[in-house]
What does this fold into?
Amino acid sequence: MSSTSTMLSVASASPSASLLVHENLKERLKLGSSSLSFNKNPTNPFINTKSFGRISMVAAVKVSRFEEVTMAPPDPILGVSEAFKADTDGKKLNLGVGAYRTEELQPYVLNVVKKAENLLLERGENKEYLPIEGLAAFNKVTAELLFGADNPVIKQQRVATVQGLSGTGSLRLAAALIERYFPGAKVLISSPTWGNHKNIFNDARVPWSEYRYYDPKTVGLDFEGMIADIKAAPEGSFVLLHGCAHNPTGIDPTPEQWEKIADVIQEKNHIPFFDVAYQGFASGSLDADASSVRLFAARGMELLVAQSYSKNLGLYAERIGAINVVCTSADAAARVKSQLKRLARPMYSNPPIHGAKIVANIVGDPTLFNEWKAEMEMMAGRIKNVRQKLYDSLSAKDKSGKDWSFILKQIGMFSFTGLNKAQSDNMTNKWHVYMTKDGRISLAGLSLAKCEFLADAIIDSFHNVS
It folds into this structure.
């Protein structure tokens, strides 16, 4: 034992613990010498050697190879839910995350989704890998749902459709296509926009700039600013447009304004790039919510469209969506699809099967499809009722004469309240209402019973906090 060499890792040990080990060693070995040598190991500068007589203590200080990795900031949207969960106040209200809730503020699984899942069980479906492009039956119905089954772009096979990981993954795949085949091309993004858009293009190394969209003076659309910025963009830019229910503002262009937007994009030889996350969920009509996309396709324009089934089918965790690229010919579409598959392979290899089969079963079966449309109308109708009740409550309680009618002009699950960061902080700190700091609230997380409480919080924050 006298010739034993002891190795101690001191990276996490306290000074008192190290001293105790030192003293125990001295006592057990009855060291007669107090001579001490302290030397750097010539072959490893992170190892210090201490010698007590014939006992050598080697302390290895391990520095992590990830020492330079900094702590990432919390996600501005998902972090809202984490803060909400930690709040113990009984009045708390989570209006941060865009997920549908019942009048009892509980998550909702559509009845038609349950039926589609039962069909999968009855048929004994397997869990084999899908092809890189996804489930063929899903790709067929999702493109037809978006453009219309009789649309010439479908009939002429001019749409390259690849199943993606919901809206986010579909956008990311499209961003990779832009980066590889349109190097240096810029993407124009509305100001404001969904919080993840910028992250997606940054990670894909695709440059972007903003076009004006929200007018804080009117809490409406800055249409003239939008048109001017699209005109001023370099020719051949990609213009990211929200197909319906703009996130976060809930402010959509009118049909006449969409025509003008299409005019300017055509004049500048830009490429429209739609993000369609709420088809059928915004107005309750699948066709009405796809009208902007179909307008551009009818003009013969090439365009990109990302789809998601998180909201309209409540398939949040299934990560089911698609990227569609409309081309001028079937040959071009086939080539684009081959490159989308090539990009997807090293990213995630192939997409998940469960959500794809649910969508394919529902959209492909006339009875289930009609049931889905009825449930969508119910969900959209509940949100419209909440929107109306909130407006009524604000108008009745606010004696200042402020016009709150902008709330009724917005559409979809979100409302842009016009509250600034300090006012939004007051909503949370004083009223326990959790929302994003840009003033956006999710009406899908609001009940009719809570509308008057929310109106009190908004009025207090708007008038008493600058």
The radius of gyration is 29 Å. Residues 362 and 368 are 5 Å apart (CA to CA).
